[in-house]
Design goal:
Layout: H1 2-9, H2 14-46, H3 50-99, H4 102-107, H5 110-152, H6 154-201, H7 203-208, H8 211-264, H9 270-312, E1 330-337, E2 347-354, E3 359-363, H10 370-377, E4 385-390, E5 393-394, H11 400-406, E6 407-410, H12 421-426, H13 434-443, H14 447-452, H15 470-484, E7 488-492, H16 500-513, E8 518-522, H17 526-530, E9 534-539, E10 542-547, H18 549-555, H19 558-578
Parallel strand pairs: 3-8, 3-9, 6-7, 7-8
Antiparallel strand pairs: 1-2, 1-4, 4-5, 9-10
Helix pairs in contact: 2-3, 2-5, 2-9, 3-5, 5-6, 5-9, 6-8, 6-9, 8-9, 13-15
The protein binds adenosine-5'-triphosphate (ATP) and magnesium ion.
Adenosine-5'-triphosphate binds near residues 106, 339 and 346.
Length: about 575
């Protein structure tokens, strides 16, 4: 396990860990020597030879001092190692999370990740502060005593050795039980954590729909299950600990009985027996301690596995020799992509070239893969086959910094950070001047919002932007993308929540911006789409039609049907309103 631990924490700490381990072993051996020296000392005292006892007192005192010093050193090293290892593990996890494909975060349960990233790391590194010492002592001290025993009375040593298999068996059995119940509790806690977070975040939906009551009942059931798992853990773990305790007592009794038998038979003296009795009881102490440590050790193991599971997720491979993009064209060439666990491919051989410094509009029915295409441009995931290129370079060959600098996205689900409007817009360009901010705000039609809100730029948006309306959120995120001034702009339904006047204005802005940028717009509104340099119709993960508005209307295909259908619905609505 220690090797796993070093593997997870990183090789940087292995020297420190080795030093700690050495101190721990020194302490355990010294303690064993102290125990064993009690035998000749007591023997000498009890058989009325105080001078000989004095003689034994010297090595005993030395061993005791060594034990004390070693204890202090190992405790100090243990805490230092724990602190260093905690830091190292946090850094490693943080770095790793930073390199994971963005898509991974969509699949992970927030509750479990939060728990691991906060308490979990501490639960792993506590090994060094509180577990390694007692554990090594529990094994090495009795072993030292056993070896020493051979010198004083080999028969008692054999008796001690004979109890080892029973102890090992009992230990295994009890830790297995504890491990099972602990794992149950852990899973139950994880489940209720996830559900509580979901329950809190989804309140608006839950309150508005009749199914909400069922979700609440489900949550209650999960929490009840967690309690039940906790109760079961208490019951079964006490039993398991009791079992191991009983085994240790049995072993002690057995060794004492053998000693008594030898004394009665006259082959061992009483003084020796008393000395051995003291020894055996002390021998039992660290072994007993091991029973309690088993559970903690299991927790560590479980956490370690969880940490490893995250560390094992492959980060997006970064290119060893990144290439610089030439120009700002975007190109999809025979791109195939399927989400993990999806039934069929979401993109099924997409070939598409977006003219540099032009507006390309992507239209198509819901679920046809439009958003997926934008995600592949931003490299949320890697394509299964084919390639997405920006400026002629495969996005997989771009450095992470270049990739981030190239694309300014406005995603379909706008997310704002809990801060002021200015914080959120500035994210696009942290060192932007006041003029630049004003420029971006004007182009995104945000100035109207700023004038209306009493605190203007300093208005707080709330978690996720909850204090703003959908259209306001969209314009803040648009301003952020405009301010970034990147060569590629991707707008996924960026105007869907805007009224007609604002939508027209933003569409105008997008056109103007396109002079220096390649723009990819996804929209369901004709007004936004119509004037694009190129319109691409996507259906079932394939490009079905592509051309200008006039060309596609003349084609009398999918695009034509799409708008005709829409017109028909609109006319029908108008007519029914007039009636
Ligand atoms: N994270 C995901 N995991 C699995 N499947 C997904 C995931 N995201 C989207 N999908 C599926 O991929 C398909 C394409 O989704 P995508 O979001 O690209 O559609 P879209 O064209 O943007 O639709 P809309 O117009 O509704 O936004 C859908 O069938 C969807 O269910
Ligand atoms: Mg979409």
């Amino acid at each position: 396990m220690l090797r796993d631990l070093i593997g997870v924490i990183g090789p940087g700490q292995s020297g420190r860990i080795r030093a700690h381990l050495l101190a721990v072993v020194c302490h355990a051996v010294a303690q064993g020597v102290v125990f064993i020296l009690l035998v000749p000392l007591l023997q000498a005292l009890l058989s009325g030879e105080p001078e000989r006892a004095l003689l034994w007192l010297v090595p005993l005192a030395v061993a005791a001092v060594v034990t004390g010093v070693a204890y202090f050193v190992q405790a100090l090293l243990g805490f230092r190692t724990a602190v260093a290892a905690t830091g190292a593990l946090y850094r490693r996890l943080g770095d790793h999370l930073g390199d994971l494909p963005l898509g991974w975060f969509a699949s992970v349960k927030l509750g479990s990740l939060t728990r691991l990233a906060t308490a979990g790391v501490g639960e792993v590194t506590v090994v060094f502060a509180h577990l390694l010492g007692p554990l090594v002592t529990a094994v090495v001290t009795p072993m030292t005593v056993l070896i020493g025993m051979v010198v004083f009375d080999w028969r008692l040593a054999v008796a001690m050795l004979a109890t080892v298999p029973m102890l090992v068996l009992a230990y295994r059995r009890s830790t297995r039980t504890i491990a099972e119940t602990d794992a149950d509790v852990d899973a139950a806690v994880g489940r209720s954590n996830d559900q509580i977070i979901e329950f809190a975040q989804r309140q608006p939906v839950l309150r508005a729909f009749p199914g909400g009551r069922e979700r609440a009942a489900l949550l209650e059931k999960t929490i009840e299950a967690q309690h039940e798992a906790g109760r079961r853990q208490l019951r079964r773990n006490s039993l398991a600990r009791g079992l191991f305790g009983a085994a240790v007592q049995l072993a002690v009794t057995f060794v004492l009985a053998v000693g008594a038998f030898l004394a009665v038979a006259g082959t061992a003296d009483v003084a020796q027996l008393i000395a051995v009795a003291v020894l055996v009881v002390r021998f039992a102490e660290p072994v007993m301690a091991m029973g309690d440590l088993g559970g903690s050790l299991r927790t560590v193991r479980a956490r370690l596995d969880q940490v490893r599971e995250i560390l094992d997720v492959d980060p997006l491979p970064e290119p060893s020799a990144p290439r610089r993009p030439q120009g700002n064209g975007i190109e999809f060439s025979d791109v195939r992509f399927q989400y993990e666990g999806a039934a069929g491919p979401q993109l099924d051989g997409v070939d598409l070239e977006l003219p540099p410094n032009g507006v390309t509009a992507l239209v198509g029915p819901s679920g046809s893969g439009k958003t997926t295409m934008t995600r592949l441009v931003a490299r949320f995931w890697d394509v299964d086959s084919g390639a997405v290129r920006i400026g002629g370079v495969d996005v997989r060959d771009l450095s992470a910094d270049d990739r981030a600098a190239l694309v300014a996205p406005v995603f379909q689900n706008v997310y704002l950070f809990d801060g002021t409007i200015e914080d959120n817009v500035r994210l696009g360009k942290p060192d932007a001047t006041a003029e630049e901010l004003a420029w971006a705000a004007r182009l995104a039609r945000m100035d109207e919002i700023l004038g209306r809100l009493p605190d203007g730029w300093a208005t707080r948006v709330g978690e996720g932007g909850a204090a703003l309306s959908g259209g306001e959120r969209q314009r803040v995120s648009l301003a952020r993308a405009i301010l970034k001034d990147a060569p590629v702009m991707v707008l996924d339904e960026a105007t869907a929540a805007l009224d007609a006047v604002n939508e027209a204005a933003v569409t105008e802005t997008v056109r103007a911006l396109a002079g220096r940028r390649t723009v990819l717009v996804i929209a369901h509104q004709l007004a936004t789409v119509m004037n694009a340099d190129r319109i691409v119709v996507l259906q079932d993960g394939r490009v079905r039609e592509s051309g200008t508005h006039a060309e596609l209307m003349a084609l009398d295909g999918l695009y034509f049907q799409f708008w005709e259908e829409r017109d028909r619905v609109r006319n029908w609505r108008l007519r029914s309103a007039q009636r």
